[in-house]
Structure formats: structure tokens, C-alpha cells
Amino acid sequence: MMSERGSEGSAVTTLIVYEVLKRTLDIIVAGLGLLLLLPLMGIIALAIKLDSPGSVFFAHERVGQHGRKFKVLKFRTMMQDAPRRGGAITTKHDPRITRIGRILRKTKLDELPQLWNVLKGEMSLVGPRPEVEKYVQLWEPTLRNIVLSVPPGITGLTQIRYRHEEALLAQQPDPEKYYCEVLLPLKLASDMEYVQRRSLAFDLYLLVRTIRALFERE
């Protein structure tokens, strides 16, 4: 009995240390990233304004840790009235995507503003993919509670595995149905795997894997 309690106490301590180190890393990297990437982000903002009318940023509501809703921040890659022209599912050849938007989405530069979400504590550098509420409601309740027990991430196991999601959806006759019935369960299982395997070493591995993935062909 004492041995079991000791093991449980050690596991709790390890998790607390991990979460403290993870948050410290998030603050340092997000803060330095925003500072160092400010010139690049300025160029991107100018390119967006010159390419199409509308705001530079796009804030979309997602479900975060413990079910708290927040606005995930991205550079705008679609027409300003895109929500009125279609749903939340975006395919590779979606006509709502702007010229600059295609470049930003392909290089993932549209996600740089999410460093602000990380700095605010709404997201982490690494974690489950933040999902739209209507799709979160489709998750199995027990699995949903587990995945939402940790902060969502800019990158993560699911984001790497399904980084070509838009190209895959473009091949489907009914992208919305395919997403809900096929991709959503797969991504939920992948997010569950991350939660079960999470550690500082695994997070660092996923960060390195993300950089490598940016240079891999579809």
C-alpha cells in the first residue's frame, strides 16, 4: 500500500514539474518568437492588405482546456466574407482562399499569430488540435474530457499526422461527411495518444518533427 501511494505521489510530482517546465518554455519561446518575427509578420500583414480587402487577422472561436472557449488568432487567408460563403471545412482548392492565403496556408505562416494565444495561456506550443465546438460535441464524452484536460497546441501529434487534411478533403465528394465520419474519430484518437504520451521530451520531439514536416512534400 505504501509503495502504491509512493508511486502515485511520484507520478503527480512528475506531472506538476512537466506542466511548470512546459508553461515556462511556452512563455519564453512565444515571447521571443513574437519579438524576433515581428518584421516578418509586418511584411505578411502588408501583403494581406494589398492582396484583398478586409482585416489582417482572423479570429475563430475554438474550444480550449476544460471546455473554455477562446478566439484562436491567425493571419486571414480567405475572403473577408468567407463564413457566409461556406462552412468550417476548408479544402485545398477552396475558392474562398486568397492568393496570399494559399502561400500562408502551405507554409503554415498563417499560424504565427497563435504565439499570442500561447503567451496568454490559451494555448501551448504543443498539444491537441483546437477544435470548433460543433465538432467537439461529436466526440465521445469520456475521450472529450481527457483531451480537453490539457491546453490545445499550435502543433502536435495530430497536426503533424493530418497536416495534408485540406488536400485529402478536396478528393472527397462530401468533405463535411468525410470529416465527421472518418477524420474526426482518427484525430480524436491521435489527440488521446498525445495526452497519454505527453512529456517534455515528447513535446521537443514534436517541435523538431514539425519543422521537418514543413519541408516535406505532400
Set down the secondary structure blueprint.
Elements: H1 2-36, H2 38-51, E1 57-63, E2 69-75, H3 82-85, H4 99-107, H5 114-120, E3 124-126, H6 133-136, H7 141-147, E4 153-155, H8 157-161, H9 165-170, H10 175-197, H11 200-213
Parallel strand pairs: 3-4
Antiparallel strand pairs: 1-2
Outline the structure in words.
Helix 1 (2-36) packs across helix 5 (114-120) and helix 7 packs across helix 10 (175-197). Strand 1 and strand 2 (69-75) form a beta hairpin. The strands form two sheets. A two-stranded antiparallel ribbon has the order 1-2. It contains eleven helices and four strands. The protein is mainly α and 218 residues long. The mean pLDDT is 92. It has one domain (31-213). 30% of the residues are buried. The protein has helices spanning 2-36, 38-51, 82-85, 99-107, 114-120, 133-136, 141-147, 157-161, 165-170, 175-197, 200-213, and strands at 57-63, 69-75, 124-126, 153-155.
Keyphrases for this structure?
218 residues; 11 helices; 59% helix; 9% strand; mainly alpha; 4 strands; two-stranded parallel sheet
Question: What is the typical, i.e. mean, pLDDT?
Answer: 92
What form results from the Cα inertia axes?
globular
Query: How many strands?
Result: 4
> What is the string of SSEs from the N terminus onward?
HHEEHHHEHHEHHHH
Largest sheet: 2 strands, antiparallel
Indicate the structural class: mainly alpha
Give the domain tally.
1
**What is the helix tally?**
11
The proportion of strand residues reads 5-15%
Order of adjacent strands in the largest pleated sheet: 1-2
Give the termini separation: 52 Å
Helix content: 55-70%
The rounded Rg comes to 18 Å
Uncertain parts = none
